[in-house]
Specification:
By secondary structure, the protein is α+β, with helices and mostly antiparallel strands. The protein has helices at 13-22, 33-42, 85-99, 114-122; strands at 4-7, 47-52, 55-64, 69-76, 105-107. A hairpin with a 2-residue loop joins strand 2 and strand 3 (55-64). The chain starts with a strand and ends in a 37-residue tail after the last helix. The structure holds coenzyme A (COA).
Amino acid sequence: MDGGVDVMAVGDFEEVAALWREVGMWPHEGEDRQWWEAALSRNPGCALVWREGGAVVGTVMGAWDGVRGWIYHLAVSPLRRGQGIGSKLLAAVEQRLQAAGVRQINLMVYEGELDSLVGFYSRRGYEPAPVRVMRKRLPALANVRQEARCGGEKCTNQA
Ligand SMILES: CC(C)(COP(=O)(O)OP(=O)(O)OC[C@H]1O[C@@H](n2cnc3c(N)ncnc32)[C@H](O)[C@@H]1OP(=O)(O)O)[C@@H](O)C(=O)NCCC(=O)NCCS
């Protein structure tokens, strides 16, 4: 395998969106290109891709909100699964979050995928947390403060 971990760049948008679409992660409510670019700038160096021959075949996005680290959008192209790419992306984003000072990483698994993903994450050191996620949907505002940060700049202190 000639691939490796690389930092996700703004120019990767089309490839990343195509991969997420292929795995059923995208489009997701509220997650458009503007959202994605803002997420990259708030957590510099914490969104990663796996490239093979220059092509994006895997992604993961890490976020540090100042309280917990979060992992989103771990995805590997269906034709490249089972080769360790997902594990390596997960380890790489964990390392970067830890280097930024994160002491606990959370992630969410949709109930429909519990069986396969809880096993995958459990074998990589995660444990089910005794919490139930609740959410409130907010209407989009016309003037969103894109410069608003939640501590993401700490992720620049990466390994
Ligand atoms: C979860 C996911 C990222 C794993 O990526 P991956 O590159 O296949 O990961 P790895 O190769 O490191 O490990 C895959 C695991 O599945 C097993 N596996 C073997 N062949 C496989 C295959 N063809 N497809 C998927 N998994 C396979 C591996 O043995 C390994 O199991 P283990 O936990 O016993 O080691 C990938 O399946 C995926 O993109 N799923 C859809 C998106 C998703 O649900 N993401 C998680 C959001 S919370």
